[in-house]
Write a sequence for this structure.
C-alpha cells in the first residue's frame, strides 16, 4: 500500500502546483479571447504576489493580502489596456514592459520597506490561507483507495485551490452561455461586425483585461500567502509563460486549459519527487535536468511542435473604428 500513498502524495502535489498556472491560464483566456494578447501574465502575478505578502504581513489578514493582490494586478492590467486598447500600442511590447516593471518594482520596494533583500517577512499562520479539511476526510482516511483519494488528494487544500478549479466551469459558462461571453468572443473574432451590431469593442476589451487582472491577482496571492509563507524575489519563476503555453496547448478552451495546467503541475510534482532518487538503469538524474523539463515542454508548445493552435482572428490587432 506504500506505493498508493506515494501516488496520492504526487497527485495532491500536482493539484497544488497547478493552481497558479490555472488562475493565470484562465486570466489569459479572458484577455486573449477578446483580442488582447497578454504576455504580461508573469508580471501581474509577480506584483500580486508581492502585494499579497506585504499587506498580509502588515494587516495580519490573508483576506487583506488577497484584496491587495487583486487591486495591484488589476492596476497593471488597466495599464496594459490603456497602452494597447486606448492608444493601440504593440501588445507584445506592452506585455514585456509589464514584466520588466514588475521585476524591478517588487525588488526595489520590497528592499525599501522590509530591508530583507526584496523579501517580505515570514507570515504567521493567521496571515495565510491554510489547508481546509473536507467533511469526513479523517473518518475515511483509513479506507483503501477511496479514503486516499478523498482524504489525501481532494482534502487538505486551501480555499484558493477549490476556487481555482471552480473557476473552470464558471469560465466555460460565462464564455459560452452568457451574452457577455458572446460579445467578448465576438470582439476577439470580428470586432468590426461586433461594433456594427452595437457592441462597444473598447468596453468589452477593457472588461476582459480587468477579468485577467483579477485572476492574475488570485494566482499571485496563492503563491505568497497560500502555497508559501511570504514573498520571495522572482517567486513566479516563469509560471506566467508556462500558463501562456498551457493556454495555447488548450486552444483557448477552459476545460482543456485545466488539463494542460494539471499536466504541468504533474511534471513539477514528479520533478520534486525524483530529486536525489536513483532511477533503475539510469542512476541519479541531475536536479537541474529534472527541473528543466516543464520549461522545455513550454518551449515545445510555444514553438508549435505539439499540434496546431489557431488564436482568435483579431488577436493582437488594435481596433480602429471606421467612420
Amino acid at each position: 500500500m506504500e506505493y498508493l500513498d506515494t501516488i496520492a502524495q504526487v497527485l495532491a502535489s500536482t493539484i497544488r502546483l497547478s493552481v497558479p498556472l490555472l488562475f493565470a491560464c484562465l486570466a489569459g483566456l479572458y484577455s486573449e479571447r477578446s483580442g488582447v494578447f497578454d504576455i504580461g501574465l508573469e508580471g501581474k502575478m509577480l506584483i500580486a504576489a508581492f502585494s499579497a505578502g506585504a499587506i498580509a504581513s502588515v494587516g495580519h489578514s490573508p483576506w487583506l493580502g488577497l484584496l491587495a493582490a487583486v487591486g495591484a494586478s488589476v492596476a497593471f492590467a488597466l495599464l496594459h489596456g490603456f497602452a494597447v486598447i486606448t492608444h493601440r500600442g504593440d501588445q507584445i511590447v506592452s506585455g514585456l514592459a509589464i514584466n520588466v516593471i514588475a521585476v524591478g518594482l517588487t525588488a526595489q520596494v520590497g528592499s525599501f520597506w522590509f530591508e530583507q533583500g526584496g523579501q517580505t517577512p515570514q507570515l504567521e499562520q493567521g496571515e495565510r490561507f491554510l489547508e481546509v479539511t473536507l467533511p469526513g476526510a479523517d473518518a475515511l482516511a483509513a479506507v483503501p483507495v477511496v479514503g486516499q483519494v478523498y482524504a489525501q488528494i481532494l482534502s487538505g487544500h486551501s480555499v484558493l485551490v477549490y476556487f481555482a478549479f471552480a473557476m473552470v466551469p464558471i469560465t466555460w459558462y460565462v464564455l459560452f452561455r452568457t451574452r457577455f461571453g458572446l460579445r467578448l468572443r465576438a470582439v476577439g473574432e470580428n470586432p468590426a461586425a461586433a461594433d456594427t451590431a452595437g457592441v462597444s469593442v473598447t468596453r468589452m476589451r477593457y472588461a476582459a483585461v480587468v477579468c485577467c487582472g483579477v485572476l492574475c491577482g488570485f494566482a499571485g496571492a496563492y503563491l505568497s500567502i497560500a502555497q508559501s509563507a511570504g514573498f520571495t524575489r522572482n517567486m513566479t519563476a516563469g509560471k506566467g509563460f508556462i500558463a501562456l503555453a498551457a493556454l495555447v496547448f488548450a486552444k483557448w478552451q477552459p476545460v482543456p486549459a485545466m488539463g494542460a495546467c494539471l499536466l504541468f503541475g504533474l511534471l513539477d510534482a514528479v520533478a520534486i519527487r525524483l530529486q536525489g532518487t536513483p532511477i533503475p538503469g539510469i542512476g541519479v538524474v541531475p536536479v537541474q535536468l529534472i527541473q528543466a523539463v516543464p520549461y522545455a515542454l513550454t518551449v515545445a508548445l510555444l514553438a508549435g511542435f505539439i499540434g496546431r493552435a489557431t488564436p482568435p482572428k483579431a488577436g493582437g490587432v488594435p481596433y480602429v473604428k471606421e467612420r
Remarks:
- The chain has 13 helices and two strands.
- Residues 16-137+156-302 form a domain with the ABC transporter involved in vitamin B12 uptake, BtuC fold (CATH 1.10.3470.10).
- The mean pLDDT is 86.
- The two ends are 71 Å apart (CA to CA).
